[in-house]
């Protein structure tokens, strides 16, 4: 394995070694070994940086390899296709990830980490707090915390496992702030969705832009109305909203319209539902490493719909298939 990786990076591997190397991306049991090889290569590079956690990059590559065109038929030439995809994606993605890990500061003392669609990452802040950053999101934070609070600014979705400290931890988004004293919670604040804060353990205070404030206990979720800025608190199954950090999407009796929003970010693809009644249909499903084709095949079986794929626009169109 280590030889495959080194030879691939140096463009010295034979065709059989190259195919064997690419095929390893499909085997879950090889992901740890692959990550270790990438970290060893990182340490050999002339950079005074800590070896990064490359599991998010491996997950991204896995998605791209499995993300075959919707509607396409399985072929005996799958490995040839994987070879072409990996040759294009692997080195650019790895380089891009390394550059992102460097966290170049936007201004002195402040840095931002961003994730593209269909990818995610995790990292540790200077106070020991762990952050998981979901697809299409960014987090800005100081290189080291000072002052009377630990403030970070979020655009998108992140899961925080906050280290306890004398100074409160605060997450700020465009629609709310979350004050924390040592806890684990998820914040979802994409522009096209109602903001949500889901508490797994500990205690947090959620404040809207109008100043309304609600305290959450474990197992509760705050949802903010973006028009009135009012806060509604409900009891939820937290794993439905935090499973993405374990590379899973879990849907339980969720409207198809909401499911589609998450799938668009998960697969970096545009999806258009042409029937509003269909968008209200409820769905139960768990998605892990399935390709977008496999997900759409599942939806066709479980719901009265059919889909068409526009390859040029990379867009799925979902239509009602009821008689």
UniProtKB/TrEMBL annotation:
Question: Could you tell me the superkingdom of the organism this chain comes from?
Answer: Bacteria
Q: Which InterPro entries match?
A: FecR (IPR006860), FecR_C (IPR032508), Ferrdict_sens_TM (IPR012373)
Instruction: Give start and end of each Protein FecR C-terminal domain.
Output: 248-313
Mention one GO molecular function: sigma factor antagonist activity
* Pfam families, sorted: FecR, FecR_C
Please list the residue ranges annotated as the FecR protein domain.
Answer: 112-204
Which keywords fit this entry according to its UniProt record?
Answer: Membrane, Transmembrane, Transmembrane helix
Transmembrane spans: 78-99
Q: What is this protein called?
A: DUF4974 domain-containing protein
Organism for this UniProt entry: Maribellus luteus
Which lineage ranks, top first, belong to the organism behind this chain?
Answer: Bacteria, Pseudomonadati, Bacteroidota, Bacteroidia, Marinilabiliales
